[in-house]
Amino acid sequence: MEIVLLRHGAASWDAPTDMERELTERGRAEVEAASQWLTEGDWRPDELWVSPYRRAQQTAEIVNARWQCPQRSKASLTPDNPVADLDPLLATFRGERLLLVGHNPLLSNAIAHWEGERASYWGLQTASMARIDADVPARGCGTLVWLRHYPNYQHNGR
């Protein structure tokens, strides 16, 4: 299984709740750049699984505009969800390539979890992406293939 983790773009703090925060102009530009880099290659997800938070939904809409892949909202992709909840969730996926759109600390913790690290990797800035390959979604069963950060997606920050 190939899993690409995409953190949402920069978001405004001007919202009644964290769940309602929206992408800023900068955030939209970051996500557009990420989307362009992803779609220029031959990688295409079978599905997108997305946090229900507004900024993640907006990020997925921008990225998926080119692909039009099935997109599902997943409550387990919220910022403070335990990373261990992702393993049984991903075990239900029947495709080969999955794009997860979500937040820190969850996505950074997921990289560490799947690579078998004890400490979290906190390098996922807004609109950062990482690809993990794993036969089984479980602690220590994944390999970090690449790590990309806005604005230079050409550089593998792994």
Automatic annotation (TrEMBL):
- Pfam families given in the database record: His_Phos_1
User: What organism, scientifically named, is this protein from?
Assistant: Spongiibacter thalassae
Q: Which Gene3D superfamilies match?
A: Phosphoglycerate mutase-like
User: Superkingdom of the source?
Assistant: Bacteria
Supply the name of the protein: Phosphohistidine phosphatase SixA
- Tell me which InterPro entries the record gives: His_Pase_superF_clade-1, His_PPase_superfam, PGM_Phosphatase, SixA
